[in-house]
Amino acid sequence: SIHNFYFQDVISAIDKKSIEGKKKISEILLPVIKRIPNKIEQAVWIKDLAETLGVGEETVAEELEKTPLADNEAVGGAEEETEEKTPKKTRKELLEEHLSILLVKFPKGTSLLDNEDYNLLSPRTRRLVSYIRDNGLDDGGASEEIKEALNYFSLKSEIEDIKSDKIEREIKDCLKEIRKLDLRGKLDSISREIKMAEKNKDIERTEELIKEFNRLSKLQAEEKFN
Predict the structure, then answer these.
(1) Which residue segment(s) compose the domain that 209 sits in?
(2) Are 142 and 150 in contact (CB under 8 A)?
């Protein structure tokens, strides 16, 4: 990630203990942080820079305020280009993000997931949820990916208005929607396969697929009323 590139590669060779080194690091990173449009992501960078320099986050924030945005047109152009290139999040990605926020807010909620639920998650979300299940929010032995995710979703959980007495219900609803999406995807795929089998006049294959389609349709109906 860009975050890792700057914090691990760019400033790794600079002496973080000397005054000159700290100054050099701030000169490199403050303009970069200033350009970040997302305030949550910006807060994560500020926190990490403060830890790197051994100063308070307030100090970094004050210096950030003084940092000018050089070449506004270039920054605007870069943002527009990023917006064009960044695809919109899918329904499943949004659900997984919301699930991650809920589980950071309520780690015990991982007990509501069964093995099938884990298999339906993307590898990245599965790694995060598995870590929370096994370690809670202690990032002591976590990978950089997990640390970043915990920081990011912790900040989002503080911003979002989530009532504690409704978190468990929200987690269940989130999992239910993910299951429904998966079923819908499988039904669409089988529907295409049925058309292909019928086109090829493969009667045996068509019957097998129709049987599987009916089984999944029944499961989908059960999900709706559960």
Answers:
(1) 172-225
(2) yes
